[in-house]
Amino acid sequence: MLKLYDYTKFAGVNLLRKTGVSLLRRSGVSFGRRSGVCFVGISINQDIVKPLITAIKKNFNRTNGKLILYGYSLGGNILMYCLEELKKNNINVDLLITIDSAKGYPGMIAVKTNVPDNVRLNLNIYQTNYSDIGSRGFPNNGKNVINIDLSDIKNSKNDEIVHSNIDEYTMLFAAQNILYKMQNINILETMNKNDILDKIALYDKINNQ
Asked: Which long-range CB contacts under 8 A does 116-120 form with residues at least 24 apart?
């Protein structure tokens, strides 16, 4: 039987928290390599679709590599615009995590919600309450999409989940599943929506102890 290596249990919460911060708290485009994995983290306020595609093509190992994409807010939306171009280049995405993908300020690029079939799994976590500048998430469409709606959910501090704190609330859960995917542990595919909601809440509670 496969023994799951859960970083919160065996390596300690601090390691996962540190890993989550190092993986997810990036400005601009950043690449990490670990065991053949090409990881891209993005959370920016400019259109970088073309150079992002160029950077992925340059860094990605097509033979035995994995491509994991994470994006929050406008960063998630920019990644959504990259997917069709990746498909044209015969590049599959092993895991796409989008957190409240939004267009940012009014007048910026429209929110894209269609996920093509070169994405093997999209975990799309969102909430529907508009921020002060109109940012909010949407459900995605595609055969490999898991949509998780956090509208009307409260975190362990009893704060309502909104656009400005949804990335913090989901950070450890996202980081954990990025680490699982790096190890070829496909745990997300076995979880239903209630399982995911419970796990996100548990990790947030641990993170704030």
From this structure: 116/83, 116/84, 116/87, 116/142, 117/87, 117/142, 117/143, 117/144, 118/83, 118/86, 118/87, 118/91, 118/92, 118/93, 119/83, 119/92, 119/93, 119/144, 120/92, 120/93, 120/94, 120/95, 120/144
